[in-house]
Amino acid sequence: MSLMFYYLALGTGARRLHVSSAFSAKVAMSRFEPGSSVNYEKMRENIKIVRKRLNRPLTLSEKIVYGHLDDPVGQEIDRGRTYLRLRPDRVAMQDATAQMAMLQFISSGLPKVAVPSTIHCDHLIEAQIGGAQDLQRAKEVNQEVYNFLATAGAKYGVGFWKPGSGIIHQIILENYAYPGVMLIGTDSHTPNGGGLGAICIGVGGADAVDVMAGIPWELKCPKVIGVRLTGTLSGWTSPKDVILKVAGILTVKGGTGAIVEYHGPGVDSISCTGMATICNMGAEIGATTSVFPYNHRMRTYMHATGRGDIASLSDEFKDDLVPDKGCEYDQVIEINLSELKPHINGPFTPDLAHPVSEIGAIAKKNGWPLEVKVGLIGSCTNSSYEDMGRAASLAKQALDKGLKCKAQFTVTPGSEQIRATIERDGYAKILSDVGGVVLANACGPCIGQWDRKDVKKGEKNTIVTSFNRNFTARNDANPATHAFVTSPEIVTALAIAGTLNFNPETDYLTTPNGEKFKLEPPTGDELPSRDFDPGQDTYQHPPKESSSVKVDVNPASNRLQLLEPFDKWHGKDLEDMRVLIKVKGKCTTDHISAAGPWLKFRGHLDNISNNLLIGAVNIENDAVNKIKNQLTGEYGGVPDVARHYKANGVNWVVIGDENYGEGSSREHAALEPRHLGGRAIIVKSFARIHETNLKKQGLLPLTFADPHDYDKIRPDDKISIMGLKSFGPGKPVTAVIKHSDGSKDSISLNHTFNETQIEWFQAGSALNRMKELQ
């Protein structure tokens, strides 16, 4: 068979196919630079080398990960222990994290990115009125940032998806993901691409810079959790219920350090976009990523999105895109889809799982508000054509009976292509007629970009969403909002009913004339019968010649700020550091570096640092953003006290609990403590991305060898980290705790640094080390 090298280039609103001959199994992707390609032959070669070395069958995750090894012959491979040096195929960045990533890339001094990379404008659009008005306002308010990202992309060879194009993960699924690709993205929900058989991993901006610089990317060799699916999805049960169930089993940290690999006969009953939903929310269990094996659902989706050529190659190399028979998983979970019931998780954490049939009674027992104030569908997790169609099927049933939503109802399309297609096919009108407001193709309320007006801050209320996260105050900045995550179908049903105390499988609604009726189970086409309508062309291709492109950062800007290198380690132990705050309980990246209104400062390190840990609970007084300044004896906000310590030459540490830094990939949660004088973060355990981000910025993420030692530390202690001159992989360090009463404690602290990462610490940051090696 002759293999062709296809170039897919985007015209105005439609793809045009250009073909030229080549001699390897390579297919270039739509809407990006020549040179980025599918290379299954190289992956197959690596897989053969590794399989022979390990002498055992491989899981799908291992095939794709090991297929991207920089040195498959010499790389030490031990799941859960060794660090792998990998060569990802491409990088994707959303606009809130791309600012700092591009600022770091500019600081590297490199002329162009070494791998295909894209920027996606989806995070800075605030939901206020409706899609068109909110998008126009965002373009005006964020003009400086959008201009920076567009010109930086043009200058350094990065594709630019303009505001209004859609959510990064939906754009990746429609254009860039394919079976066997390895993609890293500066957003924790990058694993969405696993629904198309890809290994897509969320990272911080500094990791993205490594890959864009052509440096091998490091990842601790992941364990593999197998989820075996049997049976068939039907009725009210949706793909979202699979991950809601898994989250209830594994909890928010049960997947840490592992790839979740779905397999089994039940897989074929799930659509490609449904598989993406499941992989997307795998971030909520701490998983490195999640993935499904290649099947006919993926092939159909690639054909529908203009990538039939890649589908043909995937067919040819299918053996490399499914797990080997007899492969072994570190843990196996079994779920019978035929027995799975609709779930709803929350409030305040995405792993508190309840069957929908029981949530009313559970809410009553716990005093959670039963009235649903707002139902919100969409987001990167659930905004596919199928999702919208199934929600619209329920809305139409209500409309036919003279009903509209009792709750407020919002709809967020995942991309411009989805928006245009659901508008053409009538879904958007049905959802609007039932009471919905169609928002911009953006993240919106899911990440706190929501100018909510119907309740006051502090007012107890309930919202239901098809989003992925529901941490305290995440969606609307109101800590009293009880947010529940579920499927778009259940959100729509509960919005129509207006209460949590409604089970659509058994309960009846009442029409305006008093008639009782029950909603029929939702239905919806997996893909549009008339192909997708691409809508407006919102992509900016980087020019071939960019020497004349200027990237300006105004020194007086409050949105953007060029970076200064962090100071190098002085070669001594870190002595007598103050405890900035001892955090009580859950501390996500939302607690460490809030989003919402703070997103506007993501390109300005000093300004964004004014939100450092303002959401974390101080164990001393159970208050947020109120800590004691040990130099003055007065209480102040966390960033203010940190700045005071820094101004007085006092280093400090943060003490934390379990799974510290769970949630978003935002590296600002690591940059801010480093910028304000932090040296170490000492906790019971870390979330994966945040731990890596801290290392990248020259901080010491350390864990208690004995978790009970957390209780030994007092807010007014001084802490010294000893033995740093002999700092080495696998070798614990000692912390000496000096109490104000003159007594001392000495405790052991563990770390996961390897040799390369220790060099980052010694140089002051990974970026500093990169410059040293140039």
UniProtKB/TrEMBL annotation:
Belongs to the aconitase/IPM isomerase family. Residues 511-551 are annotated as: Disordered. It holds the Pfam family Aconitase_C. Its EC number is 4.2.1.3. This is Aconitate hydratase, mitochondrial. Catalyzes the isomerization of citrate to isocitrate via cis-aconitate. Keywords: 4Fe-4S, Iron, Iron-sulfur, Lyase, Metal-binding, Mitochondrion, Transit peptide, Tricarboxylic acid cycle. GO terms for cellular component: cytosol; mitochondrion. It is found in: Mitochondrion.
